[in-house]
Amino acid sequence: MKTVTIYGSPIPYKIQRVKNRKTIQIAFTPERTLLVKAPYGITDLEAVTILTDKASWIHKHWHRLAKLSTNPVNSEFKSDALLLYLGQQYRLKLTTSSKDLVYIDGEHIIVQCSAASDTYPAFAQTLLLKWYVEQASSALLSRTNYWAKIIGVSPTRVTIRDQKTRWGSCSNRGSINYSWRLIMAPSTVMDYLVIHELCHMKVANHSQSFWQLVASYIIHYNEQRRWLKENGSILMRLFAPDK
């Protein structure tokens, strides 16, 4: 794989030329490869020049991802692994039982599973994922109903999904979608996302008036946005396809 040297560090990158694309976008993949989405006509030399111009941004995010790679939270599924729930870290405890059940006991998330040893890991993960989704559905629906009354809007539907690129979305018909992974974030972060999407029922864009409306319900919303930006990758890697 090709590399570009940024502040003395060789960073792997690949160019993805996209038909009809007019601008260049750069982002890191989960594997810490720099992905450059560019128009067909761009040359490798031009791409490297652009990456060099973005050296400060690349350097900052490269080291953030390096730090993330050493963070054990949500990185594996086994007994004693660290998992997030409502912004707190819990130790996972896997047990065998005749009854399938997931619950919190002190500092542990307990997964009781009746599956045979050869199918236990997959079935236990399914139980835990189902539990997370159920907790997210209950919490996000409750907070949506609460804030909808305060903001003065009426969503037509609330859906919980495993969205890959958005924590939430609101359609022009008032249908709101949330990522179930928000249940791993602090309750204040969940409230921010709920308020954010409900405010879109009044202001569809991200104009100054939209952010003023959000701030009228959650003054320090930038703190919650920052938390998601800094910790979003940790939320996304639990139950990721390569895990």
Q: How large is the radius of gyration?
A: 21 Å
Range of helix content: 25-40%
Tell me about the largest β-sheet.
4 strands, mixed
Determine the number of helices (DSSP H or I, runs of at least 4 residues). 6
Number of extended strands: 11
Alpha carbon gap, first and last residue: 24 Å
Shape: globular
Which quaternary structure do these chains form?
single chain
Strand order of the largest sheet: 1-2-4-3
Structural class: alpha/beta
Q: Would you identify the regions where 5 or more consecutive residues have pLDDT less than 50?
A: none
The average pLDDT score comes to 89
* Secondary-structure element string: EEEEHHEEEEHEEEHHH
SS strand fraction: 25-35%
